[in-house]
Amino acid sequence: MKKKIALLALLAAFPPLSTDMYLAAIPLLVQSWQQPLAVVNLTLIGFFVTYCGFLLFYGPLSDRYGRRPPLLAGIGLYIFASLLCALADNVFLLIVGRILQGAGAASASAISFAICKDLFEGSLRQRVFLQLGVIVAAAPMLAPIIGGWIIVSLSWHWVFVLQAMMGTIAATGVWCMHETLEKPSTDNLRRVFKSYVRLLGNKQFFLLTVALAILGTPFFAFIAVSSDIYINLFGYSAREYGFFFAGNASAFMLAPLVFSRTARHLPLTLLLPVSYLGVLLASFLLLFADTSHAFTLAVPMWFLTFFFAFGRPPGNNLILEQVDEDVGAASSLMVFVFFVTGSCSMWFISLGWQNTVLVMGVLGVCSAGLTLAGWFAIQYLLTLRIP
Question: Per the CB 3.0–4.6 Å rule, which of 59, 154, 206, 240 could disulfide with 328?
């Protein structure tokens, strides 16, 4: 079981490993290639846009042909794209490589949740989600530190070489894994893709997915501009930025541990609103942050990340509890909506605002307020299956 969880954690960690590891290089690329931040940030936005689109592609394929074949194909594309990024000598080639990398990484995220649903049930699955949350939290903690060290000691190109190696390890694990889908769908692909229509008709699933996805917009905005803020505004080095980002990411590891302990004594219907209210209060602190001091950003952002991560794993499990079939498609659609809202947030924060910290605060207040209101509305209007 430990090997299965380790493999699922590696697959689920593809997005943070693929983005956080090279964030410190963004200001360097802006200077060396003489491109505006909005253009260089297309390497982030392009990754997430194709990542989102292909999430919808891999889920139904995994329901029709099993989990392993599309997963191996996607990881193979990821390895190729990582090597293409490593060879890039201009921003446009890097954008292309990142677009392909997102298309490959989508297979890992979409299918890993479906594999988890195949292998585990009910409360056990919720515990596995929490374990994955703790393990995956190490990725955004370690990735910027490792990336900053590689960028300073070697060059940013080697970051993508390391990602190709990571993809090779994941592909080896999937190759050795037995197929987890016991009864693949016998429908043709057109009917399989119609599963999305059925899911959109599932009010509990759809409304929960949208409400919980909106909450992540300030966090994605932080990913897009954090290196520019810490390096260009506050004057820290790429390596020092890695420690700031890792400190923020430590909230990802602590939050699931705190949730697992409090969940023994308090119901999920109480803990999830606490998560949303925490994000709301932390976002209010960002509205009044003094941009002349790094810790006036770092401290509120840590609490925002903590409360976001506090409710994310059980929220994912609650969403999947609302479906009995089309699990691969449901997993894909859930992650798709989450990252589409995140990509829009990245684009919005890159528009050249004079005070990006203030804009992050506004995004956080609006998103957390909407999620909190949506949660109570869903609770009032619908009967949810709560594990």
Answer: 59
